[in-house]
Amino acid sequence: MALSGLFLVLFLAQHFTINFTSVIAPDTFNELSHFMGTNFLVQAVLQPVLIFGVCFHFIMGFVLEIHNRKARAISYVKYNGSANSSWMSRNMIYSGAVILAFLALHFYDFWVPELVHKYVQSHPEDPTRYYEETIAKFESPVRTGLYVISFIFLMLHLLHGFASSFQSVGWNNKYSKGIQGFTKAFAIIIPLGFIFIAVFHYINNL
Ligand code: HEM
Predict the structure, then answer these.
(1) Cβ-contact 178, 116 below 8 angstroms
(2) End-to-end CA distance of the chain
(3) Ligand 1 near 193 CB (within 6 A)
(4) Looking at ligand 1, which atom is closest to the CA of residue 195?
(5) Ligand 1 pocket, residue 15 CB under 6 Å
(6) Which three-class secondary structure string do you get for 25-45?
(7) Residue 205: predicted pLDDT
(8) Is the CB of 135 under 6 A from ligand 1?
(9) Phi and psi angles of residue 91, each rounded to the nearest 5 degrees, phi first
């Protein structure tokens, strides 16, 4: 769980960086998107690894939850979870489920049309189409709202998940405090950044 989670965090960092260019430099966004969408290494190696990483993380998350529930078939008479654990850590399965639902919407929005564009319809290559296609998705207030809510759950998920992944892989040394600080900052700043991108394009579309 921890290793696949750390891998997905790396993906999030690059995904955020590329998407942020849609706010400050549309031409750069088009260039980067075209590169990612047509480069052989990205398409044939990185994309399948990413899809595997996403599926593995979600399936293992559900398996782990089932194991945890089975481990205590009879629940405590009195259980005060907040005494020694955070709300986020006790509800990773729910924040994860919201992110999974978001990914279904997100793939329907971006990935499916991209596959249709590339492999079903035969359009000539157009390296400048990505920016317009992306911002068009944020014309709808409902979709923008759903994205924003999902990014808040992403924040909650990362606040516990990113920090605890280092602990899970046994990284416990004099740098742990600094790493904890970095993971918390990342968990807050990246989802806020995604919210900013979605709201920016929504307002820009008005
Ligand atoms: C405002 C925020 C976001 C925007 C504008 C955005 C935009 C995009 C775009 C344009 C694609 C390309 C589809 C393609 O051409 O293949 C994509 C793919 C994807 N996005 Fe996002 N995204 C956002 C947030 C997120 C978040 C928060 C996650 C994860 C929780 C995510 C996960 C993915 C994944 C897994 C893919 C498929 C990657 C691939 O092409 O292999 N996205 N997104």
Answers:
(1) no
(2) 41
(3) no
(4) 1
(5) yes
(6) CHHHHHHHHHHHHHCHHHHHH
(7) 97
(8) no
(9) -125, 30
pLDDT digits (tens, 9 = 90+) for 112-141: 999 898 888 878 888 999 999 999 999 999
Q: What is the pLDDT of residues 129-175, one digit of tens each?
A: 999 999 999 999 999 999 999 999 999 999 999 989 988 888 878 88
74: CB partners within 8 A, 6+ apart: none
Q: Which among 12, 14, 15, 123 is the best mutation to test ligand 1's pocket, defined by most ligand atoms within 8 Å of the CB?
A: 15
Indicate if ligand 1 lies below 6 Å from the C-beta of 190: no
Q: What percentage of the chain exceeds 90 in pLDDT?
A: 75
Q: Where are the domains of the chain?
A: 2-72+83-205
Average pLDDT estimate for 59-63: 94
> Is any atom of ligand 1 closer than 6 Å to the C-beta of 184?
no
User: Please, are residues 132 and 36 in contact by the beta-carbon 8 Å criterion?
Assistant: no
- The closest residue, in CA terms, to atom 9 on ligand 1 is 110
Full-model pTM: 0.93
Ligand 1 contact via 171 beta carbon (within 6 Å): no
- Does residue 76 surpass a pLDDT of 80? no
Q: Supply the angle between the helices 2-24 and 26-38 in degrees, to the nearest 10.
A: 140
What six digits make up the tokens of 132? 């317009």
